[in-house]
Design brief:
It is a single chain. This protein has 3 helices and 6 strands, in the order βααβββαββ. The protein has 111 residues and is an alpha+beta fold. It starts with a strand and ends with a strand. It has a 6-stranded mixed beta sheet. β2 (49-56) and β3 form a beta hairpin. It has one domain.
């Protein structure tokens, strides 16, 4: 994993907040994550990003994409709920998987 570019760090910050909110939701809803971001009370579109939630059983993955990707070094990043544990154990650092113009790449980002 490489040091994260600023674009990846920005997406990761937004993504981590969503992952944390989803985990909170799940803990108060019998272990079930929300089916949609709307159910969580979060918009899937912001002025700069698109947010996606993928559910598989009781686990989930959050992806955040830039709406305007032309000049970005990173176009989107994804992480699952394990980002919370990684951040707690590694001084706020966690792994994300990102799409870059040159292909998929992993980065370590800071919460």
């Amino acid at each position: 994993m490489n040091g994260a570019p600023a674009d990846a760090q920005q997406l990761a910050t937004e993504m981590f907040e969503l992952i944390d909110r989803i985990a909170d939701y799940r803990s108060s809803h019998e272990g079930k994550p929300p089916k949609t971001l709307r159910q969580l009370g979060v918009d899937s579109l912001t002025p700069n990003t698109i947010r996606r939630l993928a559910i598989q059983g009781r686990t989930f993955t959050v992806t955040v994409l830039y709406r305007r990707r032309e000049s970005r070094t990173v176009q989107s990043c994804s992480a699952g709920e394990d980002a919370l544990e990684q951040a707690a154990l590694n001084e706020g650092r966690f792994a994300v998987s990102c799409d870059t113009p040159s292909g998929p790449q992993g980065f370590e980002v800071v919460r």
